[in-house]
Task: structure prediction
Amino acid sequence: MGNTGVAIVIHVEPKSAAPENGRSAQSRLEEALGLTRAIHLVVAHSLIVPLAAPKPATLIGSGKVEEITKLVEEREAGLVIVNAQLSPIQQRNLERAWKAKVLDRTGLILEIFGERASTREGTLQVELAHLRYQKGRLVRSWTHLERQRGGFGFLGGPGESQIEADRRLIQERIARLEKQLADVVKTRSLHRAGRARVPYPVVALVGYTNAGKSTLFNKLTDAKVLAKDMLFATLDPTMRVITLPHGRKIILSDTVGFISDLPTSLIAAFRATLEEVLEADIILHVRDVSHAETEPQARDVLKVLDELGIGEANRSHMLEVWNKADLLEPLEHAQREASAARREDCLLVSAVDGDGLDRLLARVEDRIGKTADIFSITLDGTDGKALAWLHRRGEVITRNALKDGRVRVEVRMDADLAGQAKAMFGRHMRKKA
Result:
Protein backbone atom coordinates (compact mmCIF):
# COMPACT_ATOMS: atom_id res chain seq x y z
CA MET A 1 0.00 0.00 0.00
CA GLY A 2 1.44 3.36 -1.02
CA ASN A 3 1.14 6.74 0.64
CA THR A 4 -2.55 7.70 0.96
CA GLY A 5 -1.56 11.36 0.77
CA VAL A 6 -0.27 10.79 -2.78
CA ALA A 7 -2.89 10.42 -5.51
CA ILE A 8 -3.20 9.61 -9.18
CA VAL A 9 -6.16 11.35 -10.82
CA ILE A 10 -7.88 9.97 -13.91
CA HIS A 11 -10.79 11.42 -15.86
CA VAL A 12 -12.87 8.88 -17.79
CA GLU A 13 -14.19 10.36 -21.06
CA PRO A 14 -16.65 8.41 -23.25
CA LYS A 15 -15.29 8.35 -26.82
CA SER A 16 -18.64 8.57 -28.56
CA ALA A 17 -20.00 11.47 -26.54
CA ALA A 18 -19.82 15.11 -27.53
CA PRO A 19 -18.16 17.34 -24.91
CA GLU A 20 -20.59 17.13 -22.01
CA ASN A 21 -22.51 20.35 -21.46
CA GLY A 22 -19.93 22.19 -23.56
CA ARG A 23 -16.98 21.04 -21.46
CA SER A 24 -13.75 19.56 -22.76
CA ALA A 25 -12.16 16.43 -21.29
CA GLN A 26 -9.12 18.50 -20.28
CA SER A 27 -11.23 21.02 -18.34
CA ARG A 28 -13.04 18.21 -16.54
CA LEU A 29 -9.68 16.70 -15.59
CA GLU A 30 -8.53 20.12 -14.34
CA GLU A 31 -11.64 20.36 -12.17
CA ALA A 32 -10.97 16.90 -10.72
CA LEU A 33 -7.42 18.01 -9.94
CA GLY A 34 -8.82 21.08 -8.17
CA LEU A 35 -11.12 18.88 -6.09
CA THR A 36 -8.20 16.60 -5.19
CA ARG A 37 -5.96 19.48 -4.13
CA ALA A 38 -8.83 20.96 -2.11
CA ILE A 39 -8.22 18.22 0.48
CA HIS A 40 -4.46 18.76 0.43
CA LEU A 41 -3.52 15.63 -1.49
CA VAL A 42 -0.35 15.51 -3.58
CA VAL A 43 -1.10 14.68 -7.22
CA ALA A 44 1.62 12.36 -8.51
CA HIS A 45 0.16 11.90 -12.00
CA SER A 46 -3.01 12.66 -13.95
CA LEU A 47 -4.43 11.37 -17.22
CA ILE A 48 -7.53 11.19 -19.40
CA VAL A 49 -8.83 7.68 -20.11
CA PRO A 50 -10.93 7.41 -23.32
CA LEU A 51 -13.79 4.97 -22.90
CA ALA A 52 -15.22 3.12 -25.90
CA ALA A 53 -17.72 1.15 -23.82
CA PRO A 54 -18.01 0.82 -20.00
CA LYS A 55 -16.88 -2.52 -18.54
CA PRO A 56 -19.25 -3.85 -15.85
CA ALA A 57 -16.37 -5.13 -13.71
CA THR A 58 -13.93 -2.21 -13.86
CA LEU A 59 -15.57 0.56 -15.96
CA ILE A 60 -12.33 1.00 -17.98
CA GLY A 61 -10.57 -1.61 -20.16
CA SER A 62 -8.03 -4.14 -18.88
CA GLY A 63 -5.18 -2.47 -20.76
CA LYS A 64 -5.76 0.84 -18.94
CA VAL A 65 -6.17 -0.98 -15.63
CA GLU A 66 -2.69 -2.53 -16.11
CA GLU A 67 -1.21 0.80 -17.20
CA ILE A 68 -2.50 2.51 -14.05
CA THR A 69 -1.29 -0.41 -11.90
CA LYS A 70 2.26 0.36 -13.06
CA LEU A 71 1.78 4.08 -12.42
CA VAL A 72 0.56 3.38 -8.87
CA GLU A 73 3.64 1.25 -8.19
CA GLU A 74 6.09 3.70 -9.78
CA ARG A 75 4.70 6.76 -7.98
CA GLU A 76 4.06 4.88 -4.71
CA ALA A 77 0.53 6.28 -4.70
CA GLY A 78 -1.93 5.00 -2.13
CA LEU A 79 -4.97 6.60 -3.72
CA VAL A 80 -6.53 6.74 -7.20
CA ILE A 81 -9.22 9.35 -7.90
CA VAL A 82 -11.57 8.28 -10.72
CA ASN A 83 -13.53 11.26 -12.04
CA ALA A 84 -16.64 9.21 -12.82
CA GLN A 85 -19.34 7.34 -10.92
CA LEU A 86 -18.22 3.83 -9.95
CA SER A 87 -20.48 1.00 -8.88
CA PRO A 88 -19.51 -0.73 -5.61
CA ILE A 89 -18.27 -3.76 -7.59
CA GLN A 90 -16.16 -1.60 -9.92
CA GLN A 91 -14.62 0.23 -6.98
CA ARG A 92 -13.79 -3.03 -5.19
CA ASN A 93 -12.24 -4.63 -8.29
CA LEU A 94 -10.10 -1.58 -9.05
CA GLU A 95 -8.88 -1.43 -5.45
CA ARG A 96 -7.81 -5.07 -5.70
CA ALA A 97 -6.08 -4.52 -9.04
CA TRP A 98 -4.25 -1.36 -8.02
CA LYS A 99 -3.69 -2.28 -4.35
CA ALA A 100 -4.71 1.28 -3.50
CA LYS A 101 -7.73 3.13 -2.18
CA VAL A 102 -10.09 4.22 -4.98
CA LEU A 103 -12.47 7.18 -4.73
CA ASP A 104 -14.99 8.07 -7.42
CA ARG A 105 -16.31 11.60 -7.93
CA THR A 106 -19.05 11.26 -5.31
CA GLY A 107 -16.62 9.84 -2.75
CA LEU A 108 -14.14 12.65 -3.42
CA ILE A 109 -16.77 15.36 -2.98
CA LEU A 110 -17.88 13.70 0.26
CA GLU A 111 -14.28 13.83 1.51
CA ILE A 112 -14.21 17.57 0.82
CA PHE A 113 -17.59 18.11 2.45
CA GLY A 114 -16.39 16.18 5.52
CA GLU A 115 -13.44 18.51 5.89
CA ARG A 116 -15.29 21.78 5.24
CA ALA A 117 -18.55 21.40 7.20
CA SER A 118 -18.42 23.40 10.42
CA THR A 119 -21.93 23.90 11.82
CA ARG A 120 -23.76 21.22 13.77
CA GLU A 121 -26.26 20.58 10.98
CA GLY A 122 -23.64 20.64 8.25
CA THR A 123 -21.51 18.09 10.10
CA LEU A 124 -24.47 15.76 10.70
CA GLN A 125 -25.64 16.03 7.09
CA VAL A 126 -22.17 15.21 5.76
CA GLU A 127 -21.79 12.19 8.00
CA LEU A 128 -25.26 10.95 7.06
CA ALA A 129 -24.54 11.31 3.33
CA HIS A 130 -21.20 9.55 3.80
CA LEU A 131 -22.74 6.63 5.67
CA ARG A 132 -25.46 6.16 3.07
CA TYR A 133 -22.76 6.14 0.39
CA GLN A 134 -20.74 3.59 2.36
CA LYS A 135 -23.81 1.43 2.96
CA GLY A 136 -24.22 1.14 -0.80
CA ARG A 137 -20.61 -0.03 -1.01
CA LEU A 138 -21.30 -2.78 1.59
CA VAL A 139 -17.89 -2.26 3.18
CA ARG A 140 -16.52 -0.23 6.04
CA SER A 141 -15.06 3.19 5.34
CA TRP A 142 -11.36 3.45 4.64
CA THR A 143 -10.41 5.86 7.38
CA HIS A 144 -6.71 6.55 6.86
CA LEU A 145 -7.71 9.66 4.88
CA GLU A 146 -10.07 10.94 7.57
CA ARG A 147 -7.56 10.37 10.39
CA GLN A 148 -4.74 11.90 8.40
CA ARG A 149 -6.67 15.11 7.76
CA GLY A 150 -8.65 15.27 10.99
CA GLY A 151 -12.00 14.35 9.45
CA PHE A 152 -14.69 12.09 10.83
CA GLY A 153 -13.05 8.64 11.13
CA PHE A 154 -16.39 6.99 10.50
CA LEU A 155 -16.46 3.31 11.34
CA GLY A 156 -12.96 1.84 11.36
CA GLY A 157 -10.70 0.46 8.66
CA PRO A 158 -11.26 -2.16 5.97
CA GLY A 159 -11.55 -5.82 6.77
CA GLU A 160 -12.43 -5.36 10.43
CA SER A 161 -15.77 -7.09 10.28
CA GLN A 162 -18.11 -9.02 8.06
CA ILE A 163 -20.34 -7.19 5.61
CA GLU A 164 -23.54 -7.99 7.53
CA ALA A 165 -22.11 -6.49 10.73
CA ASP A 166 -21.03 -3.46 8.75
CA ARG A 167 -24.53 -3.06 7.38
CA ARG A 168 -26.10 -3.27 10.84
CA LEU A 169 -23.66 -0.79 12.41
CA ILE A 170 -24.07 1.66 9.55
CA GLN A 171 -27.87 1.43 9.70
CA GLU A 172 -27.86 1.97 13.47
CA ARG A 173 -25.65 5.02 13.08
CA ILE A 174 -27.83 6.38 10.28
CA ALA A 175 -30.92 6.05 12.51
CA ARG A 176 -29.19 7.95 15.35
CA LEU A 177 -28.02 10.68 12.99
CA GLU A 178 -31.48 11.10 11.47
CA LYS A 179 -32.93 11.64 14.94
CA GLN A 180 -30.22 14.15 15.89
CA LEU A 181 -30.67 15.92 12.58
CA ALA A 182 -34.43 16.20 13.05
CA ASP A 183 -33.82 18.01 16.36
CA VAL A 184 -31.29 20.39 14.77
CA VAL A 185 -33.56 21.13 11.81
CA LYS A 186 -36.45 21.86 14.20
CA THR A 187 -34.24 24.36 16.05
CA ARG A 188 -33.21 26.01 12.77
CA SER A 189 -36.86 26.33 11.74
CA LEU A 190 -37.58 28.21 14.97
CA HIS A 191 -34.63 30.52 14.33
CA ARG A 192 -35.81 31.11 10.78
CA ALA A 193 -39.33 31.87 12.01
CA GLY A 194 -37.80 34.41 14.39
CA ARG A 195 -35.97 36.05 11.48
CA ALA A 196 -39.18 36.17 9.46
CA ARG A 197 -40.74 38.31 12.18
CA VAL A 198 -37.98 40.95 11.90
CA PRO A 199 -38.63 40.99 8.93
CA TYR A 200 -35.66 41.70 6.68
CA PRO A 201 -35.66 40.52 3.08
CA VAL A 202 -33.22 37.66 2.40
CA VAL A 203 -30.78 37.92 -0.51
CA ALA A 204 -28.98 34.63 -1.26
CA LEU A 205 -25.75 34.22 -3.21
CA VAL A 206 -25.52 31.13 -5.42
CA GLY A 207 -23.07 30.11 -8.09
CA TYR A 208 -20.60 27.57 -9.35
CA THR A 209 -17.92 26.72 -6.83
CA ASN A 210 -15.04 29.20 -6.93
CA ALA A 211 -17.12 31.87 -8.71
CA GLY A 212 -16.20 34.38 -6.00
CA LYS A 213 -19.34 34.31 -3.84
CA SER A 214 -17.48 34.44 -0.53
CA THR A 215 -15.19 37.23 -1.74
CA LEU A 216 -18.28 39.20 -2.78
CA PHE A 217 -19.94 38.42 0.57
CA ASN A 218 -16.85 39.66 2.43
CA LYS A 219 -16.68 42.85 0.39
CA LEU A 220 -20.33 43.67 1.02
CA THR A 221 -20.36 42.76 4.72
CA ASP A 222 -16.75 43.26 5.87
CA ALA A 223 -16.94 39.70 7.20
CA LYS A 224 -14.06 37.24 7.23
CA VAL A 225 -15.59 34.19 5.58
CA LEU A 226 -13.08 31.70 4.15
CA ALA A 227 -12.48 32.99 0.62
CA LYS A 228 -9.77 31.08 -1.19
CA ASP A 229 -9.02 29.90 -4.70
CA MET A 230 -10.30 26.52 -3.58
CA LEU A 231 -13.29 24.43 -4.58
CA PHE A 232 -16.04 24.21 -1.96
CA ALA A 233 -14.45 26.81 0.34
CA THR A 234 -17.89 27.47 1.89
CA LEU A 235 -20.25 24.70 2.93
CA ASP A 236 -22.39 26.11 5.72
CA PRO A 237 -24.72 29.10 5.40
CA THR A 238 -23.24 32.39 6.51
CA MET A 239 -25.62 35.28 7.05
CA ARG A 240 -25.09 38.94 7.84
CA VAL A 241 -27.38 41.95 8.01
CA ILE A 242 -26.28 44.75 5.68
CA THR A 243 -27.74 48.19 4.96
CA LEU A 244 -28.69 49.22 1.42
CA PRO A 245 -27.99 52.77 0.07
CA HIS A 246 -31.31 54.25 1.29
CA GLY A 247 -31.17 52.65 4.72
CA ARG A 248 -33.12 49.45 4.15
CA LYS A 249 -31.65 46.38 5.85
CA ILE A 250 -31.39 42.94 4.25
CA ILE A 251 -29.99 39.57 5.27
CA LEU A 252 -27.24 38.49 2.88
CA SER A 253 -26.67 34.73 2.77
CA ASP A 254 -23.59 32.99 1.34
CA THR A 255 -24.09 29.36 0.27
CA VAL A 256 -22.25 26.26 -0.88
CA GLY A 257 -20.90 26.36 -4.42
CA PHE A 258 -22.61 24.17 -7.00
CA ILE A 259 -20.67 21.84 -9.28
CA SER A 260 -21.39 19.61 -12.26
CA ASP A 261 -22.48 16.02 -11.62
CA LEU A 262 -23.31 16.71 -7.99
CA PRO A 263 -25.63 13.86 -6.99
CA THR A 264 -29.07 14.84 -5.75
CA SER A 265 -28.34 13.01 -2.50
CA LEU A 266 -25.51 15.44 -1.83
CA ILE A 267 -27.66 18.43 -2.69
CA ALA A 268 -30.11 17.22 -0.06
CA ALA A 269 -27.24 17.03 2.43
CA PHE A 270 -27.07 20.82 2.45
CA ARG A 271 -30.63 21.77 3.17
CA ALA A 272 -29.15 24.22 5.69
CA THR A 273 -27.89 26.44 2.89
CA LEU A 274 -30.42 25.58 0.25
CA GLU A 275 -33.41 26.47 2.43
CA GLU A 276 -32.08 30.01 2.47
CA VAL A 277 -32.10 29.95 -1.35
CA LEU A 278 -35.63 28.57 -1.56
CA GLU A 279 -36.97 31.27 0.77
CA ALA A 280 -34.87 34.15 -0.55
CA ASP A 281 -36.57 37.31 -1.76
CA ILE A 282 -33.77 37.77 -4.29
CA ILE A 283 -31.20 35.27 -5.63
CA LEU A 284 -27.86 36.60 -6.87
CA HIS A 285 -26.35 34.13 -9.34
CA VAL A 286 -22.62 34.90 -9.13
CA ARG A 287 -20.68 33.90 -12.26
CA ASP A 288 -16.96 33.91 -12.97
CA VAL A 289 -17.09 35.53 -16.41
CA SER A 290 -13.31 35.29 -16.75
CA HIS A 291 -13.55 31.48 -16.81
CA ALA A 292 -13.41 29.80 -20.23
CA GLU A 293 -16.43 27.66 -19.33
CA THR A 294 -18.59 30.27 -17.64
CA GLU A 295 -21.61 29.31 -19.80
CA PRO A 296 -21.52 25.56 -18.98
CA GLN A 297 -20.97 26.45 -15.31
CA ALA A 298 -24.05 28.71 -15.39
CA ARG A 299 -26.10 25.88 -16.92
CA ASP A 300 -24.98 23.56 -14.12
CA VAL A 301 -26.14 26.05 -11.49
CA LEU A 302 -29.53 26.47 -13.18
CA LYS A 303 -29.88 22.69 -13.38
CA VAL A 304 -29.42 22.42 -9.60
CA LEU A 305 -31.89 25.27 -9.03
CA ASP A 306 -34.37 23.36 -11.23
CA GLU A 307 -33.93 20.33 -8.97
CA LEU A 308 -34.67 22.54 -5.97
CA GLY A 309 -37.91 23.71 -7.53
CA ILE A 310 -36.62 27.08 -8.72
CA GLY A 311 -37.32 26.58 -12.40
CA GLU A 312 -37.24 29.13 -15.19
CA ALA A 313 -40.78 30.26 -14.42
CA ASN A 314 -39.76 31.10 -10.83
CA ARG A 315 -36.59 33.06 -11.57
CA SER A 316 -38.03 36.54 -11.85
CA HIS A 317 -36.34 37.35 -8.53
CA MET A 318 -32.87 36.30 -9.74
CA LEU A 319 -30.08 38.65 -10.83
CA GLU A 320 -26.91 37.53 -12.61
CA VAL A 321 -23.73 38.98 -11.12
CA TRP A 322 -20.92 38.73 -13.66
CA ASN A 323 -17.94 38.63 -11.33
CA LYS A 324 -14.15 38.81 -11.80
CA ALA A 325 -14.34 41.71 -14.27
CA ASP A 326 -10.83 42.64 -13.09
CA LEU A 327 -9.47 39.51 -14.84
CA LEU A 328 -10.95 40.36 -18.25
CA GLU A 329 -8.90 41.75 -21.11
CA PRO A 330 -9.96 45.33 -22.09
CA LEU A 331 -11.85 44.25 -25.24
CA GLU A 332 -13.73 41.44 -23.48
CA HIS A 333 -14.44 43.76 -20.54
CA ALA A 334 -16.07 46.28 -22.89
CA GLN A 335 -18.11 43.54 -24.59
CA ARG A 336 -19.32 42.11 -21.28
CA GLU A 337 -20.18 45.58 -19.99
CA ALA A 338 -22.23 46.32 -23.12
CA SER A 339 -24.04 42.97 -22.84
CA ALA A 340 -24.86 43.54 -19.17
CA ALA A 341 -26.12 47.07 -19.88
CA ARG A 342 -28.71 45.67 -22.30
CA ARG A 343 -30.24 43.47 -19.58
CA GLU A 344 -32.17 44.42 -16.45
CA ASP A 345 -31.19 41.21 -14.66
CA CYS A 346 -27.41 41.42 -15.05
CA LEU A 347 -24.47 43.47 -13.71
CA LEU A 348 -20.71 43.29 -14.33
CA VAL A 349 -18.70 43.60 -11.10
CA SER A 350 -15.40 42.85 -9.46
CA ALA A 351 -15.66 41.58 -5.89
CA VAL A 352 -11.89 42.05 -5.50
CA ASP A 353 -11.66 45.78 -6.29
CA GLY A 354 -15.32 46.66 -5.56
CA ASP A 355 -16.11 47.90 -9.06
CA GLY A 356 -19.86 47.80 -9.75
CA LEU A 357 -20.90 46.87 -6.21
CA ASP A 358 -22.68 50.18 -5.61
CA ARG A 359 -24.77 49.53 -8.71
CA LEU A 360 -25.45 45.99 -7.51
CA LEU A 361 -26.76 47.16 -4.12
CA ALA A 362 -28.89 49.82 -5.82
CA ARG A 363 -30.35 47.19 -8.16
CA VAL A 364 -31.11 44.89 -5.21
CA GLU A 365 -32.80 47.76 -3.40
CA ASP A 366 -34.86 48.57 -6.47
CA ARG A 367 -35.95 44.93 -6.87
CA ILE A 368 -36.95 44.67 -3.20
CA GLY A 369 -38.79 47.97 -3.45
CA LYS A 370 -41.01 46.57 -6.20
CA THR A 371 -42.55 44.15 -3.70
CA ALA A 372 -43.30 46.93 -1.18
CA ASP A 373 -45.64 49.93 -0.88
CA ILE A 374 -44.93 53.48 0.27
CA PHE A 375 -46.73 54.85 3.34
CA SER A 376 -46.95 58.34 4.78
CA ILE A 377 -46.78 58.43 8.58
CA THR A 378 -47.18 61.51 10.79
CA LEU A 379 -45.41 61.40 14.16
CA ASP A 380 -44.87 63.56 17.18
CA GLY A 381 -41.52 65.29 16.61
CA THR A 382 -40.29 64.09 20.01
CA ASP A 383 -41.12 60.44 19.36
CA GLY A 384 -37.56 59.33 18.66
CA LYS A 385 -38.37 55.72 19.45
CA ALA A 386 -40.96 55.48 16.65
CA LEU A 387 -38.62 57.20 14.18
CA ALA A 388 -35.82 54.81 15.07
CA TRP A 389 -38.17 51.85 14.59
CA LEU A 390 -39.14 53.04 11.11
CA HIS A 391 -35.51 53.62 10.11
CA ARG A 392 -34.52 50.20 11.43
CA ARG A 393 -37.36 48.20 9.89
CA GLY A 394 -38.36 50.02 6.71
CA GLU A 395 -36.77 52.22 4.06
CA VAL A 396 -37.32 55.86 5.00
CA ILE A 397 -37.50 57.82 1.74
CA THR A 398 -38.32 61.36 2.99
CA ARG A 399 -38.62 63.08 6.35
CA ASN A 400 -40.18 66.56 6.69
CA ALA A 401 -40.76 68.73 9.77
CA LEU A 402 -44.26 70.25 9.97
CA LYS A 403 -45.08 73.71 11.40
CA ASP A 404 -46.92 72.22 14.38
CA GLY A 405 -43.80 70.34 15.51
CA ARG A 406 -44.79 66.99 14.11
CA VAL A 407 -42.78 65.00 11.56
CA ARG A 408 -44.08 63.40 8.38
CA VAL A 409 -42.08 60.50 6.94
CA GLU A 410 -42.55 58.44 3.82
CA VAL A 411 -41.52 54.83 4.34
CA ARG A 412 -41.34 51.89 1.94
CA MET A 413 -42.52 48.67 3.62
CA ASP A 414 -43.60 45.21 2.60
CA ALA A 415 -46.98 43.81 3.64
CA ASP A 416 -45.81 42.11 6.86
CA LEU A 417 -44.09 45.20 8.19
CA ALA A 418 -46.94 47.46 7.09
CA GLY A 419 -49.30 45.38 9.23
CA GLN A 420 -47.10 45.91 12.27
CA ALA A 421 -46.80 49.64 11.53
CA LYS A 422 -50.58 49.99 11.13
CA ALA A 423 -51.05 48.51 14.59
CA MET A 424 -48.62 51.08 16.00
CA PHE A 425 -49.60 54.26 14.11
CA GLY A 426 -53.27 53.67 13.21
CA ARG A 427 -54.99 56.70 11.65
CA HIS A 428 -51.66 58.57 11.41
CA MET A 429 -50.55 56.20 8.65
CA ARG A 430 -51.87 56.08 5.09
CA LYS A 431 -50.83 54.28 1.94
CA LYS A 432 -49.65 56.45 -0.95
CA ALA A 433 -51.28 55.91 -4.32
